[in-house]
Every structure is written in structure tokens, then in C-alpha cells.
Amino acid sequence: MSVDRCVPPFPGTAVTAKSPGMWNARRLRYEFAVRPAVGAARPRVLFLNRSYRPDAEATGQLLTELTEDLAADSPDGPNGHPAGGWRVTVICGRPNANPEGLPAKTGMTLWRGVTVRRIGHTRLAGEAKRSLALRAIDYSTFLLSALWRGVLTPRVDVVVAETDPFPLAIVGRLLAWRHRARFVIHAQDVHPELGVALGVLRNGPLVRIVRGAMHVAARSADGVVTLSTDMRKTFLKIGVPADRIAVLPNWADADAVRPVRHGNRFRLEHGLGEPGAPGSKFVVMHSGNMGRTQRLEDVLAAAARLADDPRIVFLLVGGGAAEAGLKAGAKRLGLTNLRFLPYQPKSTLGESLSAADLHLICTDARVIPYLMPSKLYGVLAVGAPALCVAPAGSEMAATVTGAGAGDADETFDDRQSDRCGWTVEPGDVTALAETIAAAATLPRGELRDLGDAGRRLAEERFSRAAVTPRFSAALRAVTEGESPAKAARFVPPPAAPETLPLCDPSEAETLPARQAA
């Protein structure tokens, strides 16, 4: 390998063929002086995450879609960004929830161009994940297996560590050194800060040691991908430079998840009736993980206050660590207007989400700096109004109210959009119940207009086709020593002209076709 085929470890650093490596104390990283250029047609990227297809958990489904797009043969994508053209490997674990019953054996498989290396590890905590001690054992065995498998994996150009479980950032940092590769953290949440904020973890010596290691990994990363401007502020406080923090939301596959407003089989199977028909129910739904971050006990309290309204029924669809406690609470309150349903197959997700007249996206105010619920984007994609339980100044509340999600940094878009729902403050059960009751009295046309606004927003900003090419652009920027924040910036699509330009008389016969297009 000749020196002219090498690139500097980061901009402004000169290298020579004789220098074995160097420390950069400011960025707390060890850089190998000679690393192969990543300008090849198909650069190699390794993803680390416990959850992957066919796991029903959101992080696994999103990672599956992202890697499929990155591994696609076509390098062209929407929004001016390249989409595919990567050689993708995923190291993942065994699924916690597999509603479709698809094979998920350990070993190597090929899925739509992605090399999937599923590793063995313990699953003592089970799908409910109630025991913190058992979860710690499961996470530890997965991390050790992931590290060993990553060491044995053929050399890659970029290592991307997801956050399931969160110490994967430390494993990813070690593997990036091992492969002499660029390192990126894709932060679906920020731990251990999130666990400490919720009181799940005690801020003792062990947690402080892990936090210190996580912060070193973040500051040493070539790029950090966060889900919101709220999370970006957290990484800025940690010490990650602004130009290395790309804000990329999660998404919904707007082509696969579409509104099903009439003849919805999910509504018919569960006796909910056709929307707007006599005797039909006004369905208030929470779909997805039932964990400690959502404050779903407030939903139970709101359901109790609305128990005398025969129109309204609450559906909690999914599962998680808080499910057993919520079921016990509903039984204690004697709630006959609230039902629990399991995770729905991905193939019918459009119908199950479309069955709701109003979707709840609940968050605990303490967690806003550390995560962004991805279920919001599926709600927008099916054209259903959203009721977000979130602080007024958060990005999630701003998205639903149409206020935009601006930031002082010019790399963020602050354009306003149409309102697609409502927000209430976390913990305000009275406002939650009153808002649900008021929504149930609105004409169907007003609810449909709110849902249509959400659908437009999903297609433009939060669809799979709009986001995954931006992720690819951020990765390519990292390989080239450029800013992932600028490369992943959202570029609004050009507005369609109000009138067609004048054409030559000889082209007059093509005008109808042009108008149709």
C-alpha cells in the first residue's frame, strides 16, 4: 500500500509512512498514521446493536431498514444525497419479541445485501426485562460476544455503535481502533444519564466510571448522530464539537406505512366499528414499548376519568418493562374502557396504527434531553392526529404544534409546518383527559385535516426515503474527514412552480402531458 493512497486521520494532520501512530490529547483518541483511503466504490461499515430483524423493538426495525438502504446497489438517493453503495455488516443479538415467528438463529446470514452476524448471549430477563440484575448479565454477555465477533470480522472502514445496550459505544471505540477505522455513535438515547434521571440507576462510583468511559468514547468519535436538537445539547455539554454532531430523526417507512381509514381490518377484528359510523368507538392508542420513560400510568388515570364516556376506548399495544405494572393498575382501577394488545406484525403496522382516531406519544419530562420517541413518525405516516405528552419547549412538542425545531446553529431547519395534533405537559392528567374528550367531539373532517398535515410532514421530513440518504451522507463525510453535521443537513425539496413556464409553439401538443406530470 503506497502512501499516496492514504488519507490523514483528521483534517490538518500530516502523516508519513514511517510514523506508526499518534495521540491527539484534545480529542482523546489514538490515530494510526497510515489508514487506507475510504474513497472506494463500496466502503465497508460495521453496525453494532443487540436488536435487529425480526425483533419487534423499534431500534431493530429502524436499523434493519437503514442497513438495507445503505447496502442497496444504487448510490443515488433523494434530497441530493447518496443512499446505497456500502458493504454492510451487522453484529446483533437474539430478538426479545418476534411476533412474526421468523428464523433468528445464531450465525451468519445474508439479508437483502446485508451480512448479519447474530451472536449468542444470555436472555435471562426475558421480553419483560423487569429485573435490572438479569438485564445486566444479558447485556454483559452480549457485549463480550460482540467484542469478540467484531475482532474476528474482516477489516471495515467505519464502525457504527448503536445504543442497545448503551455500553456498545465503548465496544465500538475498541473495535474502531482494532480495524483502524472511523468511529460513529448512533445515539438512540443517552446513558447512563437516562437511567439516573429516572431513578433506575444510582449515581454511584460504578455509574460514574461507566459515564466517564462513555464520554471519552463520545468525545473521541469522528461523528455522533443524535435524534433531536434536545439530545444534541446534551452531547455539546459532554464536550463533543458541534461540527461532529449530526441531528437525524428516526423515521417511518412512508411507502409501507400508509393511512387505512376505510375497511380497516384491525378495527373490525376488535369490534371498534368504522370511523364515524353509528356506535363506532373513538380509539385512543399508545403503540410500541411500554417502559419507564413514557409515564403511561397517567394514561390509566385519564382513562379512569373518562370511564363514563361510552364513545372512548383506550388501546395499549405493545409490551415492555412497565406492562405488568400497568395491567395490575388497570385491574385495580376496574377500567373497562382500556385494553392491552401485543405487538402487531410489521406487515400489518399500517392497519393497526391507522385504527386509532388519536395517538398518544407520552414522555417523562426528565428524559427529553436523552431520547426522542420514534413512534411519533409512524403516527404521522398513517395520517392520525397526535397528542404528545411532552414539555412545551421540546422538539417533539414543536413538531406536533407546527412550530418547527430550530436551533441557533445554521445547520438546522426551523421552518414552520401545519399543526398535526396537540400537546400537554407531562403529569397534567386533567389536561390530558380534557384534551382527549375535546378531540372526541371534533368533526371527522377536522381530525382528517390534522392527520393529513402529519402525513405531509412525514413524507417530507420523517420518511425512510428522506432520512436514510442523509445518514449515508453523514457516514461518507466522516470517511472523508469532513463535518457530518453539515453533510446531513436537511435540504427542503424545491417548491413546485405555481405556473408552467412558457413553451415554444412547436411544443404545444406536449403541454397536457407536462401538466399531468
Q: Kindly state the mean pLDDT as a whole number?
A: 84
The span between the termini is: 51 Å
Q: Kindly estimate the percentage of residues that lie in beta strands according to DSSP.
A: 15-25%
Q: What is the multimeric organization of the chains shown?
A: single chain
Neighbour order of strands in the largest sheet:
7-8-6-5-9-10-11-12
Rg calculated over all Cα atoms: 24 Å
Helix share bin = 25-40%
Structural class: alpha/beta
Low-confidence runs of at least 5 consecutive residues: 1-37, 77-81, 406-414, 498-517
Largest sheet: 8 strands, mixed
Quantity of strands, as a count: 18
Quick rundown:
This protein is 34% helix and 15% strand. With 517 residues, it is α/β, with parallel strands linked by helices. Strand 14, helix 9 and strand 15 form a beta-alpha-beta unit.
